[in-house]
Every structure is written in structure tokens, then in C-alpha cells.
Specification:
2 copies of one chain form a homodimer. With 122 residues, the first copy, chain A, is α+β, with helices and mostly antiparallel strands. Helices cover 57% and strands 16% of the residues of chain A. The first copy, chain A, has a domain at 27-110: Arc Repressor Mutant, subunit A (Orthogonal Bundle). In chain A, a hairpin with a 2-residue loop joins strand 4 (86-91) and strand 5. Chain B binds a DNA duplex (30 and 30 nucleotides) through residues 10, 12, 42, 44, 58-60, 68-78, 92-95.
Chain lengths: 122, 122
DNA sequence: TTGACAGTTGAACAACCACTCAACTATAGA
DNA sequence: TCTATAGTTGAGTGGTTGTTCAACTGTCAA
């Protein structure tokens, strides 16, 4: 077993680390991947996005469905809109929202199937 | 277009909302789904998990690979261990970590393929 | 036994985040 | 015009979180 010290950082298994480094996607890609997962990492947003994956809904309907305030929903929708995950359409006073990013919808469905096919947590 | 007020909450499209409600997974499932995505919603954890999906590595190697401290990595590994996402094996002073949850590995890979096949953000 | 090192841990801190509240805009209907 | 309602927005707030720092444990080798 070899031991090295490079740039004041200890390395135990240099070969394995360089092998991993060579097939690791660029930093920017992994950061964007984390950002994508982060958007889905909130119960309110997950429920909003799941609902929108089934139907086009207005803010009022989503608030009623989730049992929260229109303000809270509107704040989350603004975030989702800024990330181009959600699209909006005005009809008089009412603003209808729908999914705008098929990737997110797919990830949601895949994640859901993983969860439901999974055993119990300890 | 019908308008209702139920339990002091306004409903615009009652039919759509009840239709969505009928095919929405239980609250607990969606919360767990969000928790799963939340674990992946951090750059450090994503990079750790991606590395471990390729090789079994010790704390020192991961810290060197990511360019951070062993302490920061150890804290994250403790979280991942408590969620049964990561497994550890002691070899003398050295502790080797590897993935323990195939679901997470799959989600990571699927998310990555979605990202890389995606266009640019605005 | 002693020193070096891999790894863990708890406290502290700064940054972030989701929600609430109140004020506001805009549109429909009377 | 006047009122009610859908929706937005900004400030504030309490809670969460990722990292740092320092102290600690445990193991190897001399």
C-alpha cells in the first residue's frame, strides 16, 4: 500500500483516486446536478411538481390541494419559474401553471418508482 | 367554470383538483421522496456519492479528490451513513466507504444523463 | 512508550431557506 | 365606479445546514 503527500494533502490510494478523477464529470456538471436535485428536495415543491405533472393548475387550486397559503405557493412557483421548470399562462385574473421541463418530470417519476419499490427505513 | 369555497379555502377547478388528489401518492411517500432528493441536493454529497459509485475509497482519498478537509467529508459521511446510503469498512486506521443503496446510485446516474442531454440554462 | 496520522466529534458560525404577514396590482362583476 | 378576489412581492423571522476549528480516539511503526 503506497502513501503519498501531494500539495500538503494526504493520499492513501493514489491509483484509485486518479482513476476516479479521470472519469468524473466536470465540476460544473456535478454542481448543476446537485442544483437540480435540490429543487426536488423540498416537500412543498415535490407536491407542486407532482400535481403539475398530472394537470395544469392555478395557484388557488394548488394552495387548496396542498392545504397551504397562496403566498407560499406563489413564492415557490416564482423559484420554479426562474429555473424554467414551470410555465405560466394568464386567463383573466387566474394564472395557470404547468411543467416546462420534461427532465424534472421524468426524475420525479423515476424517484417515485425507486421509493415505492424500496423497503422500510430503519 | 365553477367556483367553490370549502373550509375557507378557495377552489377554482374542483374537478381537476379532486382528480389530481385521487392519484396523488400518500403524504409520507412524497415527503420521503423529497428527503431522498435532498440528500443529492448538495455539491459535496453529489461528488462523494459519484466517486463512491465508481470505487471504494477512504476518507483521506475523498478529501483529496474533492479538495476539502477530512472533517467536512467525515461529517457528510456520517449523515450518509445514518441514512443507510453509504457503508464503511475498517482496515487498520483507514476507513473505507462504499455505496450501500443502489437506488441512490441509479438516481445519480439518471440525473446525470438528464443533465448532460439537456441544453443550456438561460 | 512515544510520535505520527486516519478519522471522528461537538461547538460555533455564517449562510441559506421556506414560510408568514401585510401591502400591493390587476381583473371580473355588480 | 366600487368591491371582491387571484396573484405577486418584499421584509422579516425562525429554523436548518454546511463548514471550520479544536480537541479527541484509535491504530501503526519506530
Amino acid at each position: 500500500m503506497s502513501e503519498f503527500t501531494i500539495c500538503s494533502i494526504n493520499l492513501i490510494n493514489e491509483a484509485k483516486v486518479t482513476a476516479v478523477r479521470n472519469v468524473t464529470p466536470p465540476e460544473a456538471i456535478l454542481v448543476r446536478l446537485a442544483e437540480t436535485f435540490k429543487v426536488l428536495g423540498d416537500p412543498t415543491r415535490v407536491r407542486i411538481l407532482h400535481a403539475l405533472s398530472l394537470e395544469e393548475l392555478c395557484v388557488c387550486d394548488i394552495a387548496s390541494l396542498l392545504g397551504t397559503t397562496k403566498s407560499a405557493i406563489s413564492h415557490q412557483l416564482r423559484l420554479l419559474r426562474s429555473l424554467r421548470i414551470v410555465r405560466h399562462r394568464k386567463d383573466g385574473r387566474i394564472v395557470y401553471y404547468s411543467l416546462d421541463d420534461s427532465h424534472v418530470g421524468n426524475l420525479l417519476r423515476e424517484g417515485l418508482s425507486h421509493i415505492t419499490s424500496q423497503g422500510e427505513l430503519p
